[in-house]
Design goal:
By secondary structure, this protein is α+β, with helices and mostly antiparallel strands. Helices cover 39% and strands 28% of the residues. Strands 1-2-3-4 form a 4-stranded mixed β-sheet. Helix 3 packs parallel to helix 6. The longest helix has 18 residues, at 140-157. The radius of gyration is 17 Å and the shape is globular. The termini are far apart.
Length: 172
């Protein structure tokens, strides 16, 4: 019985432990910038003030943007650790001028080399609220996740995966 309690404690601690190794930023090599694609995405975080589906929303938005900027054939994995998430309130969304904030670290790893970290990008973004009914009804988690994922594409691959427009959650 004591073994089961220790195993349960260890598993619960691992669920919150960062999946990233941490350390200074590491740019991707020019070869990886032009040949990489992302296969597996893993996310971790400390305790966040968000809806339960934040992990799904965040990883979905990151994957969607990366499929547009990491279009090569060489598989890499991506580890994400969210450090902070703050969303503007619905009233701020109505009147505009509010901001959503997300700080997270991305580590690209090479599965062919024992998941060696080949790129590390600590990224912090702010995404403005749009105001009006759109600002109230917007999926705040999606807006800030998309903004963060676009910044990851810019920093890691040197390109914005999309042009601004009504098909995007973020205005720029």
């Amino acid at each position: 019985m004591r073994h089961l309690a220790l195993i349960a404690a260890a598993v619960s601690l691992c669920a919150c432990a960062p999946v990233v190794q941490g350390g200074p930023p590491i740019p991707l090599s020019p070869e990886l910038v032009s040949t990489a694609r992302i296969d597996l995405i893993t996310m971790s975080s400390g305790w966040l003030q968000s809806e339960e589906d934040f992990s799904d929303t965040f990883t979905d938005e990151v994957r969607e943007e990366l499929t547009r900027c990491a279009t090569g054939s060489r598989p890499l994995n991506l580890r994400l650790h969210v450090d902070d998430l703050e969303r503007a309130g619905r009233l701020e969304g109505l009147v505009g001028g509010g901001r959503h904030f997300l700080a997270a670290t991305a580590e690209f790893t090479d599965p062919a080399r024992d998941d060696l970290v080949v790129g590390r990008f600590p990224i912090t973004v702010e995404a403005p609220t749009s105001g009006g009914l759109a600002g109230v009804l917007a999926d705040r988690q999606m807006v800030v996740s998309e903004a963060w994922a676009r910044e990851l594409c810019m920093e890691a691959f040197g390109r914005n995966p999309r042009t601004p427009g009504p098909h995007n959650a973020t205005p720029n």
